[in-house]
Specification:
Helices cover 33% and strands 18% of the residues. The chain is of the alpha+beta class. The strands form three sheets. Strands 2-1-3 form a three-stranded antiparallel beta sheet. A two-stranded antiparallel ribbon has the order 4-5. Strands 6-7 form a two-stranded parallel sheet.
């Protein structure tokens, strides 16, 4: 696996893992890589900061900002922590892909067994589910479908 710092046109910097550099290029070309903050699929490799250990006897510095936004290294750290929390949330959850709206509605209506699921839904599908009282919530970060992540 290889990790890249990526950036979207809005200036959001995030970390993504790929099997190889060619996997990154292939997924980016197919529009499968998007910014977890704004959803923009036009992303490029960002400049990666070196991993330098801080002195243990110094006080924590204030969070660095760049142009009123978190600096890339801090954004990367926060997104990594968020990714860990999301991974923990999805433990035991079934990835149902584009069938999410159908499966969620079937469970709500009693036509399918209750279980934890995650997948993709269009804005219109998600809005309809919420309007009909189906309990759904967006994930903070995109999920790589199992068929792509292997």
């Amino acid at each position: 696996m290889i990790v890249f710092d990526l950036a979207c046109g809005q200036g959001h910097v995030f970390e993504a893992w790929f099997g190889t550099s060619n996997d990154y290029e292939d997924q980016r070309t197919r529009g499968l890589v998007s910014c977890p903050i704004c959803g923009q699929s036009e992303v490029e490799k960002a400049v990666m900061a070196p991993n330098v250990s801080a002195k243990t006897n110094s006080a924590s510095p204030p969070v660095p900002m760049q142009g009123g936004k978190l600096a890339p290294a801090e954004m990367k750290t926060m997104l990594a922590a968020l990714a860990q929390v999301q991974a923990k949330m999805l433990e035991g959850s079934e990835h149902v892909g584009a069938r999410f709206a159908i499966e969620a509605r079937a469970m709500h209506d009693g036509d399918a067994p209750e279980r934890q699921i995650h997948g993709q839904a269009t804005r219109e599908e998600a809005k309809a589910l919420i309007e009909d009282g189906v309990p759904v919530a967006p994930l903070p970060l995109p999920v790589i479908p199992p068929e792509i992540s292997h």
